Amino acid sequence: MQIGPPVFSLHRGTTPLLVSVPHAGTQIAADLRAGFVPRAALVEDTDWHLERLYAFVKELGASLIVPRFSRYVIDLNRPADNAPMYPGANNTELCPTRFFSGEALYREGAAPDAAQIARRVEQYWQPYHTALALELERLKARHGHAVLFDAHSIKSELPWLFEGRLNDLNLGTVDGASCAPELRAALRSVLESQTRFTQVVDGRFKGGHITRHYGRPQQGMHAVQLEMCWSCYMIEEPPWQFDAERVARLQPVLESLLGAMLDWRQGA
Hints:
Layout: E1 2-3, E2 8-11, E3 17-20, H1 50-53, E4 63-67, H2 114-143, E5 146-154, E6 169-172, H3 181-192, E7 199-201, H4 209-214, E8 221-229, H5 244-263
Parallel strand pairs: 3-4, 3-5, 5-8, 6-7
Antiparallel strand pairs: 1-2, 2-4, 6-8
Helix pairs in contact: 3-5
């Protein structure tokens, strides 16, 4: 079943699995556009094509939640109090003020103030998180537990954010705190059993706010994040084209990861 207000869409599935793609949105509301520099209209830091890439999860019976608006409006994977995810490193904010390359996202003097940030939290952030939380509760009530797969993608090299080149597949479990150890081990096994893509568990990306906040294994809620390099499935330069050949190589790995989430049973 497909539901959702204008800021997101939610497909409700029949299994314990919910897939979230919080940075797949590309819209910027008309009343906000004037404050951004012209370059922002390209929304270059989008997690491109993830709704399309993960569309197969609906056939597996999973739920899928997708925002409509860009992370430039508000970052759904940051806490509402804007606490940094990775202290000591360059971080993107709740309402980002810089591109991933470090340049200013807003015209001089046009960055959102506290009042505007609060309005964006109310209009864009809160509806997404309310729906996400309610869906997890629905799945837990039906199945006894819920598993959340928070899906992300990023350019493989971004010197302002991290040194060198990322591993292709970066699984985050907040160092094992956001899911049961058996689930973490099953997902690690999937990654280690393939050799096409480089991989790491709890490396540079350990999981953002969604994984950290909703991953409460002691309460039957298990969450993981996959940060994946664009180069795994698309061209990393404008116009950021979906690459069917690359997708064909990646798809079996994604299917195995999601299959492991579905096959896992709490307490088994």
